[in-house]
Amino acid sequence: MNTRARSGLVVASNRLPVVVVRHPDGRCELVPGSGGLITALVPVLRDRGGVWVGWPGTCGELSSLESELAAAGERAGYRLEPVSLTVDEERKFYQGFSNEIIWPLFHDLQSHCNFDPEYWEVYQRVNHRYAEALARHCREDDFLWVHDYHLTSVATELRRLGRSAHLAFFLHIPFPPLDIFLKLPWRFQLLRALLDYDLVGFQTPRDLRNFLGCVRHLMPEVRVQGRRGQIQTLQLDQREVRAGSFPISIDFNAFMKRAAASEVGEKVVELKAMLPNRELIVGIDRLDYTKGIPQRLRAFGHALERYPELHERVTLIQVVVPSREEIPRYHDLRTEIEQLVGEINGKFTRPGGWVPIHYVFRSLTGTDLLAYYRAAQIALITPLKDGMNLVAKEYCACSIEEENALILSEFAGAAAELQHGALLVNPYDIEGMAEAIHRAVQMPIDERRARMRRMRRVIRNHDIFWWVDSFLRAAIAKDLSAFPQPDDYVPQPESGWPSV
Predict the structure, then answer these.
(1) One CATH from 3.30.300.30, 3.40.50.2000, 3.40.228.10, 3.40.50.150 for 252-461
(2) Helix (H) and strand (E) counts for the chain?
């Protein structure tokens, strides 16, 4: 199959959309990855043909994976091109600069940062390697779409290599305000690197405003010009750079249909039989200090203290998916979470069998995840800061009876879209979150339905296909005055994607 017969989309992300599984006998197997980015871009690449460049998740020599990657790409309809990393590079580029500097800083947690100068050197080197891979596998008429904070410098490296293809970048995490961004020792280099793209996309209007504020303050030579909706144009070195907000989403219809499946319904019945006559509250998070899990547990404990009528009426199911446990800070976070669960359960558990918190520390199967979404009358999603938080959107999509309530942090990117249906809370306000829990439990069913219908309508109209479509249109539009606004159209992916 010739997947490069016409100009297409070339995607670069930290990871490929497949995961390498090593078996005890040394054999390697490629299994499909998961996540919103893969869900969004796989149909586009399959439709047009193209290339996905990324790290396969294993260090060292990649020659043993060539045939497997080629076969996987043949089946998918686009090529998979791996980028190799040494163990030292993986530690300093991924664990180091990406997740000990950019991740905490961009989530307003600068006290968690480790500004090791060697991390920046390795980060640049790895970004150069990604740029070389892209240069090898793309043509001048291809559209290059680079994803997330691991690869901010790829455009700079591609320009140095003489490539002038269309270059776009999307940041999946928040962009910090000026006073936080100034703490980055390489602030000028990183900001200039983002301006080497033709289009820079952010999750929310707030992230876009923060970016423009940093540009105005740190790069006065850049002229911030006209605006069309959420798309801003900037003039730099005889080049026009576009910046805009494009809130990522989910495949609403797919989640809704899967949630209605019989096997999910059976799991829901099992869960409710195990916890009868309870208002189930669910929290589902990856193990990360940005998710606000300790604050949430304290708020739940405070709600039980303040509102005795909740006793034996509510149960919190807190699911924590393991992540980065080799990093000491994450190990300490897990210990703190488990201690809080033990303290609250020790204080409020009743002899009749009521245990206020059911704690689950493991990854969930797709069926189990959907069953938790459907069984819970309330979702408690309270990150300290989040680029978007797709769990909130998934929960709403799976609320097929539309009788559920969502308690959502005002610092999650999803709050901008779901504010008219969710109960917004400050995750640092323990008393305020406790009040929101009590209010959600007491909320009349008619109010729950009205709120949930508003949120589901927003997510249905602005789904993952709308996100891809709006981003690509913003990148290729000749005249932004004709660029459609978010509510001007609902894309139909089956009718074909914009020509890039």
Answers:
(1) 3.40.50.2000
(2) 19, 17
